[in-house]
Amino acid sequence: MKRTDSCVHPYPAGDTSLRRFALEAKTLGYDAIVCVGGAESGMIHGVRVMTGIVIREPSMNAVISRIKRCRSDVDIVMVGAGDAAFNRAALAYRGVDLLCNLFAAQKKAFDHVAAKNAAENGIAIDISLHPLIHQSGGARQRALGMYADILRLHRRYGFRLTLSSGAYSYLDLRSVREVIRLCSLFGMEKDEITRALSTVEHLACPPEPVEVVP
Amino acid sequence: MKPRPPTLRDKRRYILCAVDPVHRRHEPRRMYYAIQNAVTSLWGDHGSAKIQMAVVGGDEGYVIVRCIRGTEDLLEAAIATVTGLDGERVALHPVAVSGTIRALRRRMRPAPPVRMMDEIEIDGRTVTPCAYSRQKVDLFAKGIKNQESLYFTHDDMEES
Description:
The complex is a heterodimer of chains A (214) and B (160). With 214 residues, chain A is α/β, with parallel strands linked by helices. Chain A has 9 helices and 8 strands. In chain A, strands 1, 2, 3, 4, 5, 6, 7 and 8 form an 8-stranded mixed beta sheet that branches. Chain B is an alpha+beta fold and 160 residues long. Chain B has 4 helices and 11 strands. In chain B, strand 2 and strand 3 (62-68) form a beta hairpin.
């Protein structure tokens, strides 16, 4: 099973180059990373590098038109979460791979209807470790509460989860061992964490029906 | 003062943490304050009292932290939330847990030699490269308020 960090931001958005990210991710136990804003994908220093895009638009129509423009250029399409209605619509559209940044959304932004949509359409929900690492006090408490709620819905409806560091620097990356410790803060079990780390591998290569090519 | 009998002593564990960036040295006292703040922020005063964290030593690139047996997971979670030290970005990665400091010292690897290079220009900024390990190159640029850092590899340097 491949362990993947589903969102890093290499130079120039961050202060670490793509190759350095790959090198450090290998040291920390990752097999693949998804780079937002990265130009190249492939194998770098034994780590599979995938390209991703985070779409933050106010309306679903704008999201759909952006996905149609960029779908062929990137491996993973992520949509930034909004309010409850937006999230339900985004999770009903099959062109989306991941819904991310839920920690920044409203309290009831991800409900059981959105969870059902995510499970039916095979769209994963991203859990970012960025607020757990970099924030404190009320902001971190809100993030932990949100993630505990997402986990409860995940156990009920069975949609996929992914884990990301949201790293802008290689110093923001956390090893797999630390990810297990941080995810246990909101009740995630080790097997759930392992499955979440390998979800991106399935999103990038979805199973297709067998075709007989004459 | 007479020491406690062994059955009444607190059982402790030691956690070896790798410090990034490797080549920066930090005072043990500052390291203690940073980790203690992280523990208190995450687990509160009650959790912090249960863990009884202490920085007991280390070497270049490593720090050894002590805690009460049974609280290693709590301390590792708090160590993962340490992001800064002495106004600089830092990352601590727990590597191993042991009952003795000696066993952890055997797991420490020597820090790679650091080689400072001549100033170069990248994206209109003058930076000083600092090469260590086989591929890693850290670039330091003097900013307006403090030093800015970029983290590249040798392959990136050859391309730019």
